[in-house]
Amino acid sequence: MKASVFVYKNVGRKNRKGVKTIKINMNDKLKKLVATGTALAALLLSSGVALASAEAEASVEDDGTAYSYSEDNDDFRVRNRNSGGLFNLDAGVGVSGFNSQSGNDDDNSLGTGDAEGEAESDNFGNSNITLIEDDEEAGSSTSDASVGEDGTATSYAYDNDIVEVINCNHADLDNLTLGLAISGLNDQSGNDDGNDMDTGDSDAMAATLNEVNSNWTMIGGSHSAHATAEVGDDGAAYAFAEDNDEITVRNRNSADLDNLSLAIAVSGGNTQSGNDDDNSMETGGSTAESSANNFVNSNITVVGGGDGGSSTADASVGEDGTATSYAYDDDTVGVTNNNEAEVTNVSAGVAVSGGNEQSGNDDGNSMTTGSSSGSSCSTNTFNSNWTAIGSDVPEGGDSGCE
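RESULT FIELD:
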């Protein structure tokens, strides 16, 4: 008796039909791009292709020959080419100052309310996410041949995968984020007795996040080749398994980033002059906070994390005969990262409660300024490459300014 089984499952093998090629071309001159990380991942996630398995099994219950052949060869090519230009301006301006009170009679009062200005920019440009992965059973080649008593069992299993991911990105980004709050810059002059000026607090905040040319590539190593040949009594068993993978990842990025983040809070800069007796000036507190986080040309490549990616061959003869098995697992992995970045960043938090003037008045003048606080934080990370081969995703670094 003879039992023979042949199974081929080739996806994109050279000179065969069924090549799976994913191409993404983007050339956009963007005026404004503000997106959340969740929406970004949903829009830019490369289309997934399900990986099926190839299984072959040949069995003879008594005497005879069993021959089993299984082949699962996958060829995946992902190409992302992006070019983007972005000019973005976000401004939050709050003004309760710039008031004038002059040429009046006695008992004049000038009071401003609080001023708040907040601006926040989140810019994501040229981001590519590529995931090629499946579980052990779904993407492997399995071949089993068995003879119950005397005969010959031959089993072949091939799982040779070609994976190519190419990302080319270019970005020009000009960003200005301005938080401006003014309750000061008031004038009170040329009045008679009893003049009072009281400005409110001034708070300004500017926050910027620029994430440009980011490539996340994760290629699982779970595909395997397994061959088993078994003869129950006398005969010959031959098992051959081959799992040779060729993986190529190329990232080429260039970026020109100019970023200006400004938070300016002013409760000072007031003038009180040329008035008669009893003049009083009191400014509110002034607080300005600015932060800028720039992540430019970041490449994260993970190849072969987790279990799988092996080649196994088992041959057995119950009594007399010959058992031969071969297992090959030769993988070629190439990762190339080329990055160019020009980054100019200015982040400033300016708070002013001073700069006031009180002059040319008669008796009984007082001036009191509020507290002033200015802070700035910048994180600039560019041309960063994280490559992990045969391990899990690396842990991230500093998340930047909060």
